[in-house]
Amino acid sequence: MSTTSREQIEAEISRTREELRTTVDELSDRLSPKNLAQEATDEVKIAVADLKRRATGEVRAPDEPEATRTGWILLGTGALVALTVVRKIVKRL
Asked: How many CA atoms lie within 13 A of 83 on its CB side?
């Protein structure tokens, strides 16, 4: 039966704390509102580019990212909001 010294236990605790700190920092960065907004913007840009390609009959280049479901949902939601705003403005005229 092996025994673990106090120093080994403290070193293990220190390593675990550092790993936990790194993980929390990565999660905080990944879930920051600024980064989430940038990811959403990027997804919409990709969906718009895909929509443009489909309308013009172009083929997506292999190195270009493919639109995701999230991108299409965000694009559709944005279009619906824009349409609603325009309709309200037109009704007021």
From this structure: 6
Residue the block writes with tokens 């919409």: 44
Per-residue tokens: 51: 């929509």
pTM above 0.85, yes or no: no
Query: Where are the extended beta strands (E) located within 1-93?
Result: none
User: Each residue's pLDDT tens digit in the chain (93 positions)?
Assistant: 567 799 999 999 999 999 999 999 999 999 999 999 999 999 999 999 999 999 999 998 899 999 999 999 999 999 999 999 999 999 988
- The CA distance from 5 to 86, in Å, is 71
Write the secondary structure of the chain as one string of H (helix), E (strand) and C (coil): CCCCCHHHHHHHHHHHHHHHHHHHHHHHHHCCHHHHHHHHHHHHHHHHHHHHHHHHCCCCCCCCCCCCHHHHHHHHHHHHHHHHHHHHHHHHC
